[in-house]
Amino acid sequence: MLAVADQKAGAIDTYTKNHFTTLQADYLSPEDWKRLHTIKEFLQLFHRATLETQGNHATIDSVLFTIDIIIQYFEAALISRLPSKLDNTNTI
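The chain above was modelled as a monomer; its predicted structure follows.
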């Protein structure tokens, strides 16, 4: 659903602007769209990992390897989102 919303962002924005009086509470600001795009990008790895490890051909070895990759990805994402004030110190 998020992928479709991202593809149809222009149409959604136009529709909500045309019906702003009734959709004011649901209007997505440019910052909201940016946040949704970031979330979509972040979730791409999880989508791929799910496809790679589903079915009868997935082995415990491939699942554990995929989990290791997801953990590294998640940790890197957390570190990249830290405020710059924390980046200059070695304590977290």
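The chain has a mean pLDDT of 84.
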